[in-house]
Specification:
Number of strands: 8
Number of helices: 11
Largest sheet: 4 strands, parallel
Order of helices and strands: EHEHHEHHEHEHEHHEHEH
Strand content: 15-25%
Shape: globular
Distance between the termini: 54 Å
């Protein structure tokens, strides 16, 4: 047997961690398109219910630190995101950030709610048309949290679905039809497609061209925010979206 000497190297590439819901079938696929190849992505999953209610969302609070602890320890994370829009509103942004930091060391943290507010600030958006797949009780908490941060949602629509496996299979045409109907009501600055489990990326650019409005989605804003926090750039796959073109030197 021959034993060889070896050298160690540091990886200067920005590293992002992502906590994904057990029931989510979409966000990982979207992030492969949204994040540039120059960013390292590490994913862990958190136990979650197949049904979405305020009660089941709250239950995730106890499991977030353990999910974050499953991210690789030697990695120096530039940012870690919690991939649940409604869960963040239910648990609270500050509490989610605290739980993520309990499980892993990172310079920055984000979630879809924080990312949406940052995106709205960057775009000058104050009034959203809000499209949710979920029942009204789930959406109302999120809309209130947005309003408290200066972003109102006077136009609201929902698919009134509680099962995650059905949310993941809502068609692009259904999203397009609902978005156009909401945008047509007027009095808004942008449209938000809420939920990391919705298949939104391919409809964003066409809807922006048709409506003349920014079209935001949970996965789009979260990836954008994490990239900014980590000092990275958006991938070419969403280069046509208005958000991907935002230039800003300071993102919170």
């Amino acid at each position: 047997m021959t034993t060889f000497d070896y050298a160690m190297q540091e990886d200067p590439t920005p590293s992002i961690g992502l906590i994904v819901l057990q029931s989510d079938e979409r966000i990982e696929q979207d992030f492969r398109r949204l994040l540039p190849l120059s960013v390292n992505l590490y994913v862990s999953r958190v136990q979650s219910s197949p049904d979405v209610t305020p009660e089941t969302l709250q239950l995730m609070e106890a499991h977030i630190p353990a999910a974050a602890r499953l991210l690789p320890r030697p990695v120096r994370f530039d940012a870690i995101g919690y991939g649940c829009t409604s869960g963040t509103a239910q648990i609270g942004q500050a509490r989610v950030a605290e739980l993520l930091r309990q499980g892993a060391s990172t310079k920055s943290v984000s979630d879809p709610l924080s990312a949406l507010v940052a995106a709205c600030n960057a775009l000058g958006v104050r009034r959203l048309a809000f499209l949710s797949p979920y029942i009204a009780d789930v959406s109302s908490r999120l809309r209130t949290a947005l309003s408290e941060r200066g972003v109102d949602s006077p136009v609201f629509g929902t698919f009134a679905e509680a099962e995650e496996q059905r949310v993941a299979r809502i068609t692009s045409q259904s999203l397009t039809d609902a978005t156009l109907a909401l945008a047509g009501q007027g009095g808004i600055d942008a449209v938000f497609l809420s939920c990391t489990n919705l298949n939104t990326l391919d409809v964003i650019a066409p809807l922006e061209r048709e409506t003349g409005l920014p079209i935001l989605s949970s996965n789009l804003v979260l990836a954008w925010h994490l990239c900014r926090l980590a000092g990275g750039m958006m991938a070419e796959g969403v280069g046509e979206s208005r958000l991907a073109k935002v230039e800003t030197s300071s993102i919170d």
